[in-house]
Amino acid sequence: MPLVDSSKMLSDAQKGGYAVGAFNAENMEMIKAVIAAAEELKAPVMIQTTPSTIKYGTSATFAAIVKAEAERASVPVCLHLDHGSSYDLVVECIDQGYTSVMIDGSHEKFEDNIAVTKKAVEYARTKGIPVEAELGKVGGKEDDLEAEADTNTDPKQAVEFVERTGASSLAIAIGTAHGFYVGTPILDKERLSAIAKIVTIPLVLHGASGISDEEVADCVRRGICKVNFATELRVAFTDACKKLYNESPDTFDPKAFGKAGMAAVKELVKNRMKVCGCDGKAL
């Protein structure tokens, strides 16, 4: 079917008490693997690319691949810009055919975050495209794992942010971090529950790679409607290629490595979809 936007997906998830899995893809093989997993589990799915991935492959190339694969699929597929780093990139991706975008102004001051998010929303609305925004700072690989109040999303501030920007969904910070964790992350799930009670739009969890299935499922129960997975997919793909090379060092056909990587990514994605509870929701 044609690419769809994320509005109905996330609205249905919010009403149904589950989350849509959103998976970052780096190449054609990962795109095919994610959609194959969604097909097998009858799940709606979001495929994401980051600014660095777009720089590597271009927004036009990824839009063309995902569009072609989605049209062959029987489940809803959405192409999403993850962590859009500028208004110009948001415009570029929308114009190239992305059906959902994120503008990430979380590293800016509150008012500046509102300004850039509102600007992105205003353009996206002219094209009928939903916009994800972020409030609070989701850490990176070197960040302290223990949640700190001054970097996590403030519930009351979140309400004001949503009202003033018109964002379609909101990524919140509750102690997760991008990349893999070097210890046990401490998630402020009570904060998540508090935000879910007063913010009306779907909530998004970033930095889920490395968080236990139980923790992810609990966040979904508390109101998360979209969960992002990135680092662990890259690792699964690359580890499968390494394994094939170590077992068969004479392998020279790139397709063989691609097939190995796809198989690993597909199984991981299926697991994560089940944890999110979106399996069977495309029926």
Provide a descriptive summary of the structure in words.
The chain has 283 residues and is α/β, with parallel strands linked by helices. The protein has one domain (6-276): TIM Barrel, CATH 3.20.20.70. It is 51% helix and 14% strand. Strands 1-2-3-4-5-6-7-8 form an eight-stranded parallel β-barrel, surrounded by ten helices. β3, α5 and β4 (100-103) form a beta-alpha-beta unit. The model is unreliable at 141-150 (pLDDT under 50).
How many separate domains make up the residues? 1
Provide the β-strand percentage band.
5-15%
Mean pLDDT: 93
Query: What percent of residues adopt helix (DSSP H or I)?
Result: 40-55%
Got a strand count? 8
Number of helical segments? 11
CATH class call: Alpha Beta
CATH topology: TIM Barrel
> Which second-level CATH architecture applies?
Alpha-Beta Barrel
State the separation between the terminal residues, measured CA to CA.
Answer: 14 Å
Shape: globular
> What characterizes the major β-sheet?
8 strands, parallel, barrel
Give me a quick take on this structure.
The chain has helices at 6-16, 28-41, 51-57, 59-71, 87-96, 110-127, 155-165, 189-198, 213-221, 231-247, 254-276, and strands spanning 20-24, 45-49, 77-84, 100-103, 131-135, 169-172, 203-205, 224-229. The chain has 283 residues and is α/β, with parallel strands linked by helices. It is globular, with a radius of gyration of 18 Å.
What key phrases describe this protein's structure?
283 residues; alpha/beta; TIM Barrel; 8 strands; 51% helix; globular
Write the layout of secondary structure elements.
Blueprint: H1 6-16, E1 20-24, H2 28-41, E2 45-49, H3 51-57, H4 59-71, E3 77-84, H5 87-96, E4 100-103, H6 110-127, E5 131-135, H7 155-165, E6 169-172, H8 189-198, E7 203-205, H9 213-221, E8 224-229, H10 231-247, H11 254-276
Parallel strand pairs: 1-2, 1-8, 2-3, 3-4, 4-5, 5-6, 6-7, 7-8
